[in-house]
Amino acid sequence: MRSSRTEPARHGVDGSLDVDESFDFVIIGAGAAGEAAAGLALTRGASVAVIDDDLIGGSCAYWACMPSKALLHAAAVHHAGGDYPWPRASDFRDYMINREGIDYPDDSAALARLTKQGGIVIRGRGRLAGPGRVEVMAKGTVGGEVRSLRAGNVIIAVGSHSKIPPTDGLAGVAYWTNREATSARELPRSLLVMGGGPTGVELTQVYARYGVPTTIVDSNDRLLSKDHPLSSRYIQRALERDGATVRTGVRAQRVTAADGADGAHRVELSDGSAVEGHEILVAVGRAFPVEDLGLESVGVSISDGSAPRPDAALRLADGVFIVGDPAGPEMHTHIAHYEGEMAVRIALGDEVTPDFRAIPRATYTDPETGSVGLLLNEAHDQGHEDAFEETADLAESAKGFVTQSEGHVSIVVDGQDGVLLGTFICGSGASEAIHEAVLAVKLRTPLHVLADTIHAFPTTARVLGGLFAKAARRL
């Protein structure tokens, strides 16, 4: 398409904008969603400005997905007896997040990728100032210099940050979020993890496998409360084998700084007991920085502090899209990337609509979990009265025998239509094997076709294939 930029771009080596301009797309946020949107828009010939006051690449690249998976890999090798002490693990993590020998990650490579494609990167905080207008409070300017941009389309891709609960006394300690937990260069003397979702269980395993006395607390009845109950059970067993203490069904009520043994923080729980940790990792959910985006200037109100919900085309208003974590329906890097590109395609006139019927989910503990679609009770609640479940014990399969591993594969089938509604895997290769089920849910592939598909031996996918055949016989 023809660029609407009104004059040649002039920017410094740090990507800062020197003049006000008009762009086809102004993207507020340079995380996974913003980068994906910018990349596609630039390849389609659009002019693009990306605004962010922190790292180009966002949380996933520096504080979440990449460092946590690097540390999980190191911890697995260490746990198996390999030569991977913590200093080496810390160095490997620093390499992954471009922080070798420095205090804060270096995003110059990510910046160079965007600018090489023709994008303009503005260091600052962006907010809407009316239809087709974006104001930028430039980073590091004296007196808060404000620049005004004209935008054919605005894409809000501000991501999320750790939600901090109003627990009595928590604000009085230097608690960790995922940022501190994934970037620590020294092991803590002990660790208390508040929250048993993916972040909580993954980082619990990392530190427990490096010998840190670690306790994980979750107010839900089980860890990974949105996953299959069998997956929760296997993950809890794995963490306990690694030396972690697991407390479920209790909530942190009060934190007393340095009131425990050897100066550890003491946390009173809702059942009257107490746990301790020299560091406290808060991983109870995510919050969205949407309050100061000027959404009211385009007729969008935020009454309760939650993120505004877009329509089926990811729009909040004419020419204004929201993508990534604040947009939902779930928070994953792959959803952010998908929505970023989808918003650009819609804005450029492609006849497409986001399809969220088959969202893959994965937790990268040992064993891994992977899932897609509906649990059995969710299927029944959504009107699939004839839905049923089939489950296989992974430990009793050839895959389980040769890898000496445990876990399960479970599928939920619509008994009336004969299609797959959900799949849940805990075990070796779960995050890879789940994608056959993702495609089957998306396409509503008939069970008899899945059952007639050849699966390599011995794999977790073959266990899944066996369940397809079993369910097909039941139809």
What key phrases describe this protein's structure?
FAD/NAD(P)-binding domain; Enolase-like, domain 1; 3 domains; 5-stranded mixed beta barrel; 5-stranded antiparallel β-sheet; 14 helices; 31% helix; disordered N terminus
Describe this protein's structure.
The chain is an alpha/beta fold. The chain has 3 domains: 22-57 and 107-160 and 288-347, FAD/NAD(P)-binding domain (3-Layer(bba) Sandwich); 170-284, 3-Layer(bba) Sandwich (FAD/NAD(P)-binding domain), CATH 3.50.50.60; 361-474, FAD/NAD-linked reductase, C-terminal dimerisation domain (Enolase-like, domain 1), CATH 3.30.390. The chain has helices spanning 32-43, 58-62, 65-79, 86-96, 108-117, 178-183, 198-209, 229-241, 333-347, 376-381, 398-403, 430-443, 447-451, 460-474, and strands spanning 22-28, 48-52, 120-128, 133-138, 146-156, 161-162, 191-194, 214-218, 245-248, 252-256, 265-269, 274-277, 279-282, 286-287, 315-317, 320-322, 361-363, 369-373, 388-393, 408-414, 419-426. Strands 1-2-3-4-5 form a 5-stranded mixed barrel. The radius of gyration is 24 Å and the shape is globular.
**CATH topology grouping of the largest domain:** FAD/NAD(P)-binding domain
Helix percentage:
25-40%
Overall CATH class of the largest domain: Alpha Beta
Question: Which CATH-level-2 architecture of the largest domain?
Answer: 3-Layer(bba) Sandwich
Q: How confident overall, as mean pLDDT?
A: 94
The CATH homologous superfamily of the largest domain is termed FAD/NAD(P)-binding domain
Strand content: 15-25%
Spatial strand sequence of the major β-sheet: 1-2-3-4-5
Number of alpha- plus pi-helical segments: 14
* Tally of DSSP β-strands: 21
How far the N terminus sits from the C terminus, by CA atoms, comes to: 51 Å
Decide which structural class fits the backbone: alpha/beta
Return the domain count: 3
Shape: globular
Largest sheet: 5 strands, mixed, barrel
